Amino acid sequence: MPVLDREPSKDLGGGDGLSKLPLPSLKDTLDMYLRCMKHLLTEEQFNKTQNIVKQFGAPGGVGERLQSKLEERRKNKANWVYDYWLNDMYLNNRLALPVNSSPAMVFPQQNFRAPIDSLRFAAHLISGVLEYKTLLDGRALPVDYARGQLAGTPLCMEQYYRLFTSYRLPGPERDTLVAQESSVMPEPEHIIVACKNQFFVLDVVINFRRLNERDLLTQLEKIVKMADSEEEQLPPIGLLTSDGRTEWAESRSVLMRESTNRDSLDMIERCLCLVCLDDASGPELSDTTRAMLMLHGGGVAKNGGNRWYDKPMQFVVGADGCCGVVCEHSPFEGIVLVQCTEYLLKYMIGSPSKLVRAASVSELPAPRRLRWKCTPEIHKLLACSADKLQRLVRNLDMNVHKFYDYGKEFIKKQKMSPDAYIQVALQLAYYRCHGRPVSTYESASIRRFQEGRVDNIRSATPEALAFVKAMTDGMLSTSDTEKMEMLRGAITAQTKYTILAITGMAIDNHLLGLREIAHELKIEKPEIFKDEAYLISNQFILSTSQVPTTVEMFCCYGPVVPNGYGACYNPQSDHILFSVSSFHESPQTCSAEFVKCLVQGLLDMRDLCNKCNCGSNPTEQRKEKHTQTETNWQNKMQRPSDLTKNPQTLPQVLVKTADQTTVEAQTQTSSQGEAQGLKNGSKS
Prior knowledge:
By secondary structure, the protein is α+β, with helices and mostly antiparallel strands.
């Protein structure tokens, strides 16, 4: 039997009144594991796995012993899987953070007519950050409630409180997520501003008073002047943070030998966040280009050194209007990034820029440039990091596509969950591109529970495979009625697994817990975890996430395996935005080809629904069809007329009305708190 709490328990760190994460029964997890894997393995592989699983789950066997140890662990911890999950998903992963781990939110293209406009935008944004930080410090953020499947449950809010107080410290074998505990007399708060690969300390509280927007603008203008001073320029130390985690840990220990460097590192590690003032990156600023620039800064020749990737929040303000946020993913999931970012953009629209001269702190002290002492060894390490970042820049194959033919309203009219429908479309796209199903990751929020983060929805279900085969190999031999039945079967299976996952009853966290407790007990690694099927099950060739927004922006990230795809989608009422990534170095993948198959699949699924559900009338959908893979849609965006009076200082943002924010499935990031995790599945 699964272990559940009958009564919600109080918890110190993970949210008052929330239940503890349940522990599924060993039998349920092992049965589901076999069901999830059977169609992804050869007959020979599956027979071998079936025997191994049977042996692992036998009465009195090793599985039962490990399960009882997990039950003990559950009694003693607020969340039995949290530490295991955090290490496995993030901190043990040795890959570089940009592209591989850190997702980005891309803002609408801003129209900065003069250099001062980008600084006004940055000052306004910082004001919003300070306003949001005040809410967090007062624990005044309203509680999120689950939406969509099993709506109405309060959700754990702990992740929000790590937004501006944590730091990912690199380690030789495992990183550390450092959370700063606020002291009784906190030091003056500061932000680090990166400009031309130099780092500056911007104190946001001076003489116990928070700087207003005019003061912030004055300080940013001083920073830009200081950064332009040729004789003072220092090497782009930020490049070191873009390297593999073990390499960066080694470089950091070299930097730490000098007291000057120790002081600079300390200031960066304790700051609220980074604001990166980027140089213009070139003429073409399509959605795809902006997504790539947000993920890696364009490498050493552009703004790749103007970053510090260990910090959770880096706000990027480009002189050419290319703006967004890059986030270090280990402290929080996607919902937190979306909620915080939407708060900031709405704040910037709702509270006009307050660039008044009144009540300024007289004679503000100049911001301080961080100094670095660089030995020849550090210069060599910098050159090495720059080369690796350049390779990552060349390797990323990104394709941002806005699918205009229909959106979630059409899907809801078919009485289907939009998230489940899009997941089935992604399965169809992969099958049409590659002729086989693969392990697929879709994050599901488990924030209903104390300290809950995510578990995995395994979207490559046997039912989805039956449907995609009928739509591909059996296009002519299967009737439309049969295909429609298969589509409904695939969507039902996807929805059922989603509910299992959000209620803490999916298999990935449980298998991880069994594996890790065996390691803790110094038991020889059980055969189930050495089996080829387990390795295949954790190679997430398709890493997907729903990241819906109510403000016109989109999320993107890289694949989690060399031969995989990252597929992030933002369903709106009449269109769906997709960000698809892969690596050029893989001969098997191509983002443009995947998008082409995805678009065709979505059109085929719509046609099938229209043929079989005559009651649904698609004429309400847009007649104009855009199926090209590159649509520069931000330019078409209409702004409310009252916002156009002062185009220099107002962000170009479109806010949707409340009735457009409902999210049906509790996967990636619902607009108010259910679906989680921008980019997960980075199993190393």
